[in-house]
Amino acid sequence: MTNDNRVYLYDSTLRDGAQTQGVDFSAADKVAIAIELDRLGIDYVEGGWPGANPTDDDFFANPPKLETAVLSAFGMTRRPGRSADNDPGLSGLVNTGVKTITLVGKSWDFQVDVALEIERSENVAMIADSIAYVKDKAGEAMFDAEHFFDGYKANPEFALECCKAAYEAGARWIVMCDTNGGTLPDEIEAIVGEVTKHIPGSHLGIHCHDDTGNAVANSLAAVRMGVRQIQGTLNGLGERCGNANLISILPSLMLKMGFETGVSKEGLKRLVTVSRLLDERLNRAPARNAAYVGESAFAHKGGLHVSAIEKDPSCYEHVNPESVGNKRTIIMSNQAGRSNLVAKFREVGLDVDPKDAKVNVLLDKIKELESSGYSYDGADASFELLARRHLEAVPEYFRLESFRVIDERVWDKRHAHVNQMSETTVKLFIGDKRIMDVAEGNGPVNALDAALRKILIPVYPDLESLHLVDFKVRILDGDQATGAITRVMIESADGQGNTWTTVGMSSNIIDASYEALRDSLIYKLYKSGVKAHGGN
Ligand SMILES: CC(=O)SCCNC(=O)CCNC(=O)[C@H](O)C(C)(C)COP(=O)(O)OP(=O)(O)OC[C@H]1O[C@@H](n2cnc3c(N)ncnc32)[C@H](O)[C@@H]1OP(=O)(O)O
Ligand SMILES: CC(=O)C(=O)O
Fold it and tell me: Where along the sequence do coiled-coil regions lie (predicted)?
């Protein structure tokens, strides 16, 4: 029995996503991503175009074992003037042994005339022959009607004739492609509405590109009109402006439109993980503002918002963040009110009476520090240390007496090679004990970090695992040129799954870096429950 409410998801990350500028998957990347898609519950995983490049050949030579997803191979209709069983492209697809083959074919008369330069009747024959051939050899055939919407606008009879030829030749799905990505949602609705009079929605798919920023809206519009397959990519990867983003489509379909997919409600909670795994593989920073899965998708900054969120999160959240595996974050900044502070205290485990006079004093202090250039929006660890120092106490693990940095660049005699060296001397008190040490580094901050560690690790071995994962410098008042105030944000990790961010600010970049480094070291010690040596 067919279920009208079931929408099938077809992922093209490994094929259309591989057409993204700057993306170059290895066969191993493709296998890992296919396995993640399968685990998520995606129905079809398009592995690539066998015969187009060695990576795709390797992938199909050793395809991943998928539990529920169907692996498909992509290619094009036969070449003009050949029979389907004599077309090397189609044989290559069939020889992969996959059970589903997706063929792209022209459905815009202009493309047939200009790009293929063949008779329109030959294009229709190429579609019908090729679909019948791969269905016979593989089992399931799909037709991607390239430029369908532009084609329909130019010549609806011809665009439909191409699709009907594929359907009548046995294609399970006829996928209408907005190849140039220029179609708007109202046009999609109107055209899809017409197509469903000829081909049932249960056999129709949609494939949108994001050139007007409407790929997700267009895909959902098509589903509203009866289409039951959506093609897209993870994080909207794809040529030019990208493809329809399945990561945004999935929760909208399931949580808002009430459709069923191959992804379970529990599976939907892996959405953030899947999205970030792809970014990691591509060595890309995740988009903070990505719908549903971005780090800022449920981050609340304005005081008015946080005060209402505290009463009921749905005041400023369209869905529960946990439903997609995300989490709510309260941001501390100069936009904050008392509610932000109280919520943040709870987040870090500080039990404070909201009416305590210290809360207002701390809020004023934060606003003052922010106006001088600090930013606690994103520097949670520095915020926590500031709050704890203000409300209770943080042990004095060490006290800086001074540091001195020597930075040297020496060119060889022919001025062909520069030798760059930095050296830092640090003098610290740990309890009553004064300790001095020197370290070298490839830059002044690196040398400062090394000297601090040289002194601190023998006393506090917990710091051994601490390492810096990101270092960001921002000039705050560019008009002051080299005298500008600098803000440094440091992200640290300890190899045990913990990461934290600290901030420092000064007109001297090394001093700002010291502040951020110092907070990072202290935060690690504090969170590890370490007691201060030789003192309080
Ligand atoms: C809308 C889309 O995203 S479709 C997918 C686009 N993706 C890619 O193109 C990536 C993979 N492609 C490739 O590696 C190569 O283009 C290949 C291996 C497929 C073909 O390479 P080549 O044989 O060197 O041809 P080339 O790429 O220069 O041109 C494409 C040829 O296919 C023909 N063609 C285009 N679409 C179709 C079609 N649907 N059916 C039959 N032939 C077609 C073109 O007319 C052209 O023919 P010609 O060689 O006689 O000029
Ligand atoms: C098939 C395809 O990728 C497109 O038409 O956009």
Answer: none
CA of 145, nearest ligand number? 2
Q: Is the CB of 144 under 6 A from ligand 2?
A: yes
Domain parsing of the chain, residue ranges: 8-263, 399-527
**In this predicted complex, what is the ipTM?**
0.95
Q: Look up tokens 């300790």; give the residue.
A: 435
Q: For domain 399-527, is the CATH number 3.40.50.2000?
A: no
Number of helices (H) and strands (E), helices first, in the chain? 18, 16
For residue 154, the model assigns a pLDDT of 98
As given in the structure block, the two tokens for residue 225 are 């009109």
Take atom 6 of ligand 2 and give the residue whose Cα is closest: 179
Q: Indicate whether residue 207 lines ligand 2 (CB < 6 A).
A: yes
Tell me the one-letter amino acid at 331.
I
Q: Are 232 and 202 in contact (CB under 8 A)?
A: no
Distance CA(79)–CA(126), nearest Å, equals 7
In terms of C-beta density within 10 A (0-12 exposed, 13-18 middle, 19 or more buried), how is residue 24 classed? exposed
Q: Is the pTM of this model over 0.90?
A: no
The finding on whether 125 has its CB within 6 A of some atom of ligand 1 is no
- Taking the CA atoms of 373, 378, 382 and 383 in sequence, report the sign of the dihedral they define: positive
Q: Which residues pair with 11 in a beta bridge?
A: 45, 232
Measured in Å, residue 333 CA sits from the centre of ligand 1 at: 53
Domain formed by 8-263, architecture: Alpha-Beta Barrel (3.20)
* Cα gap 395→433, rounded to integer Å: 16
Ligand whose nearest atom lies closest to the CA of 144: 2
**Ligand 1 centroid vs 65 CA: distance in angstroms?**
29
Q: How far is the CA of 282 from the centre of ligand 2 (A)?
A: 22
Q: What is the pLDDT of residue 536?
A: 45
Q: Which amino acid is at 395?
A: P
Of 227, 136, 252, 234, the closest CA to residue 177 belongs to 227
Residue numbers of the chain with a pLDDT score lower than 50 = 536
Task: Give yes or no for residue 77 CB within 6 A of ligand 1.
Answer: yes
Closest CA to 38 of 65, 72, 73, 74: 65
Q: What is the pLDDT of residue 2?
A: 64
Cβ of 46 below 6 Å from ligand 2: no
Residue 240 pLDDT: 97
**What average pLDDT does the structure give for the chain?**
94
Ligand 1 pocket residue status of 76, Cβ below 6 Å: yes
